[in-house]
Amino acid sequence: MPGRRFHTVDVFARERYAGNQLAVFHDAADLDVDEMLALTRETNYSEATFVEGDDPDDGRYPVRIFDPAEELPFAGHPTLGTAAVIREFVRDDRPDGLVLDLAVGDVRVWVEHGDDGVERYWMQQVPPEFDVGLDRDAAAAVLGLDADDVRDAPIDVVSTGLPTLVVPLRDLDAVERAATQPGAYEREVVDGLGGANVLAVAPETVDGDADLHARVFADWAGVPEDPATGSAAGCLAAYLARYDADAREMGLDVPEGGRERADGRDAVECVVEQGLEMGRPSRLHLRASVRDGDPGEDSTVDVRVGGRVVPVAEGTLL
Questions:
Q1: Does the predicted model carry a pTM greater than 0.90?
Q2: With b meaning 16 or more CB within 10 Å and e meaning fewer, what string describes 94-113?
């Protein structure tokens, strides 16, 4: 491993030392799983990625993602952060589109140049899958809250490669008070659901430029709380597009049926703030809409998540 190059970036950040940290290791095809896992734990970040070669395979970059516990089929901020490192530090032509070959399949990443002069990286996540989650009492117990803190809305497990339990809460105070309770979490989330991120979300925000306030707990993966979670944000976007009435109740302008707007914009288009409780303020941009079928089991929800990526450091292993 000596001499191997790596970069660190902050993803979903508006400035350095915010958002979610990521380490990206280059030319990693010769590393085995134990070595990748050891390097991930050494960074002490929620995830690290390993680009198996700096030359794309049929235009696709094979990438492996690890958290401190295991290899992951998909994760949001590692996908955007890795694409940014490839674009900024590997490719000379700085293309506005890349494809990462992940365990979950090919994930397309592209850059949008905003009117504010900011470049934001976007990814199209694989179509979400929905499953039965928890009732209000069980969800409240997991988060150490009262049942009245949980909105009377579906509490589903949604997955775009990594399962997330979406728990809609009544207000900002409830989200700030939320904390996973070991006994209830082990019983309901680990044993009952087989493991999942837990996303608590409310329509009240700290900053006026955001629409929703969220926190994500991933104890099952060795990450008690995550400052910015692109996979969970994609699951939230899919949830809002599917349950449009609940999304409108949360203050979002969502057309009935979660369908694409008449003006061509996505049905769900909002900004989520996360990480404030951890001192790592983050901004995640969400888009989603129902593309075919009726909202429900036979529909396809198109999910896209974006945000800024800020380079922090580069180096080589000794």
A1: yes
A2: eeeebbbbbebeebbbbbee
